[in-house]
Amino acid sequence: MAANILLVEDEPAIQELIAFNLTQAGHNVLRASTAEAAITLVRNALPDLVLLDWMLPGVSGIEVAKKLRSDERTRAVPIIMLTARSDEQDKISGLDAGADDYITKPFSPRELLARIKAVLRRRAPQMTDDAVEVQGLRLDPITHRVSGNDQSIELGPTEFRLLHFFMTHAERVHSRAQLLDQVWGDHVFVEERTVDVHIRRLRSALEQTGHDNLIQTVRGTGYRFSTQR
């Protein structure tokens, strides 16, 4: 599944090569050559993942990682550090700063894409192509099909994304604001009651197979996807 990836790399040739391979793999790439430019892009819209070079002019990648992790809005954004530093202590420093993974240059495009997929599967499973199934309710991101007990369920695009997010983040309570950020994107400005409308549509579609009770309202907080009553 296509992810919005922020590539922060100050060497033009390396930036171009990485961006080309990410685009070929179907991802959308935003580019920044400095820490300041990266922070500005993140402020405008949250990426699904950040590829962050350690050695940047001025503010280092380590400082950028720390800044992203210290802000509640960006705390959960996956980060992969890119660096020529291979010492164990350097790797520890990168991970301690908040990086989810650490890739030492030079690396192959196949390795990079595999690492990206692994981090997204762990930190943002809704961004992967893996099918997910809960109590007979199955969603396949590749074919964009949903079924309940082998019976096809028709969903609109927003309801599909909403269900995918719920199923990959089961048993967690999400506020309407969090759902807007995760499903619609934090750069899209819509009212929180919009979530309620799509929740109703999603439940209505799931009624035919008896899976509507998996979408639960948590009074005063938001919604959760749960198999527990």
Q: Would you mind describing this structure in some detail?
A:
This protein has eight helices and eleven strands. The chain has 229 residues and is α/β, with parallel strands linked by helices. The protein has a five-stranded parallel beta sheet, with helices on both faces. It has a four-stranded antiparallel beta sheet with strand order 6-7-8-9, with helices on one face. Strands 10-11 form a two-stranded antiparallel sheet.
Which word captures the global form? Answer: elongated
The Cα radius of gyration reads 19 Å
Strand order of the largest sheet: 2-1-3-4-5
What is the H/E string?
EHEHEHEHEHEEEEHHHEE
Query: Termini separation (Å)?
Result: 32 Å
Mean pLDDT: 88
The total of beta strands comes to 11
Structural class: alpha/beta
Share in helix: 40-55%
Count of runs of 4 or more consecutive helical residues: 8
Strand content: 15-25%
Q: What characterizes the major β-sheet? A: 5 strands, parallel
Assembly type of the shown chains? Answer: single chain
Model regions low in confidence, pLDDT < 50 over at least 5 residues: none
Strands, helices and their partners?
Layout: E1 4-8, H1 12-24, E2 28-32, H2 35-44, E3 49-53, H3 61-70, E4 79-83, H4 88-96, E5 101-104, H5 109-123, E6 132-134, E7 137-140, E8 145-148, E9 151-153, H6 157-168, H7 176-184, H8 193-206, E10 215-218, E11 222-225
Parallel strand pairs: 1-2, 1-3, 3-4, 4-5
Antiparallel strand pairs: 6-7, 7-8, 8-9, 10-11
Helix pairs in contact: 6-7, 6-8
